[in-house]
Target: NIPSNAP domain-containing protein
Amino acid sequence: MVDLFREKYYAGIKDAPELHVKLTGSWETIVGQQDTFVHILEYENYAGFDKTTELIRTSDHAKAYKALLPYVTSRSSQLTQEFAFFPTAPPHAQGGIFELRNYQLKPGTLLEWENAWRRGIEARRKFVAPVGAWFSQVGRLHQVNHMWQYPSLEARKELREKAWQIDGWAETVSKTSQLATHMDSFILLPLSYSPLK
Model:
């Protein structure tokens, strides 16, 4: 039942042009915090966020949301900005798994992290195309999130091992890991209505 309510709410938002919001993707966590779902929505700047959330509160989408609430034990949200050098992938259906990585940075180190990562990311791109990368603006601050897609967990292991052999990647990881206080990796499966699959 909860799957039906969740799909009705998020797919309804995706398919409502008057809301001016894009559903980038919806996933279920299979490794990490269990029974957790990740939804990435793209708003037209802060004014767009204000307008869209108000429209949702006063529309039929609110009914679908209220039907979902009895099944939810906690929710959190974060407003982020996309890294200019790492644009979010367009909708596609490649199959496999997604990995969402979260890095909690030391305050004041975002620019240093971005500069180090920008130099080393080409080593990773030789083996796997990134889905997207974002840094927090509102919510949990000083956080970087990036997402990758792999055919399987085994393929993820093999591709990551190959990246370590390329000049630049080990140095990038060494520099950026010194700027983080906490790191998480979650393995996700796309939901049926997710534009990214």
